[in-house]
C-alpha cells in the first residue's frame, strides 16, 4: 500500500494518523507512507522522529471573525492545493487519510479532485471545521464517538470505529505500571494528570484536596504534574505529614502512561480525545475536567459523552475546587461496586480494535475506487 497521512497542529490529530499508518504497515509489509503537514505544527518534529518521510504545505486556519487575514488564508489554500496535487502525483498513493487540523483541508481536497480515495477521521464528538468541510469530498468518514454520527448525517460510508491510538494502549500491562511506580501490585491508586504539559487549574485542585486523602486509608495518589509545575507541586508535597506523603507520588511526566493508566483504580483527567480513547480502551473509571481553553470548547461534549454513559463524572473547570474534587474521588473510591459499573461502562465505549477497523474501512474504499 502507498498511503498519504495528513493531520496537524496538535498531538490529538497527529497520533491517530501515525497509528493508522502503523496498522497499514503491520498488515501490509512494504507499505510506503508519506506524511504531509506544516512546518508550524508539532508534526514537523514528531513525524520525522518516527522515520517517516515528511513534506510540508503552507496553510493557516481561518479566523472566526471577518478579517483581511482570511483573504490571505484563501490564497494560501489555493497554493497549498497546488502543492498537494504535485506531491500526490509524484507519490501516487492508493489513498489519503486526514485526521483533522487545517492542513488536512488542501491535502484531502486535492486528493478528491485527483480521484484518489480519501478517508477522514474525527477524534472529538463535535467535528472541527476542517472535517465538516471535507466530509462532502471524502469517500469514508470514521469517528471516535457514536455521538458524532449525527454530525455526518447524509455523508457516505460513515463508521463509528473509535480512536486508533486505543489499539496500542489496550495491550498495556498493569503489572509494569505498578512496578514503575514502586507500588505493590494491586495497590489502589488515583491517577491525576492534566496532559503532557500539565493543567494549572487541575493541579491546584489536586493540591488543595491532598489533606483530605488522609481519610482514604490505603489509597495512593499518582500526581503527574507536567514539567513546568513539578517544582511547585513538590514543594507543597513536602509540607504533608509523613503518613500521607508516603502515599503521594509526584512525577513531572509519565513516559509509560498506558501502563500507569492500566494499573490505576480511577483517573482524574482532562477530556481530550486521545486521553479518552486510552481511558475507555482500558476501562478505567474517570473524573473528567474538560479544558475550556480549546477550540469550540470541544472537550466538554467529549466528557459529557462518557458521563452520560456512566463511565465518568464531569466537573466543569469553573466549578472545580479541592473540596469538590475530593468529594468525587472519595465517593468513587469508597464504592467498589460503583467503580466496577463505571469500568464496565467505560470498556463498552472503548474500541481497542479501532486501528484495525479503520484499516478495513480504508482498504474497502481502495478496492472500490
Structure description:
There is one protein chain. With about 375 residues, this protein is an alpha/beta fold. It has two domains: about 1-165 and about 350-365, Glycogen Phosphorylase B (Rossmann fold, 3-Layer(aba) Sandwich), CATH 3.40.50; about 170-350, Glycogen Phosphorylase B (Rossmann fold, 3-Layer(aba) Sandwich), CATH 3.40.50. Helices cover about 45% and strands about 15% of the residues. The strands form two sheets. The chain has a seven-stranded parallel beta sheet with strand order 3-2-1-4-5-6-7, with helices on both faces. Strands 10-9-8-11-12-13 form a six-stranded parallel beta sheet, with helices on both faces. Helix 12 (about 275-280) links the parallel strand 11 (about 265-270) and strand 12. Helix 12 packs across helix 15. The radius of gyration is 21 Å and the shape is elongated. The two termini are about 15 Å apart.
Outline:
The protein has 369 residues and is α/β, with parallel strands linked by helices.
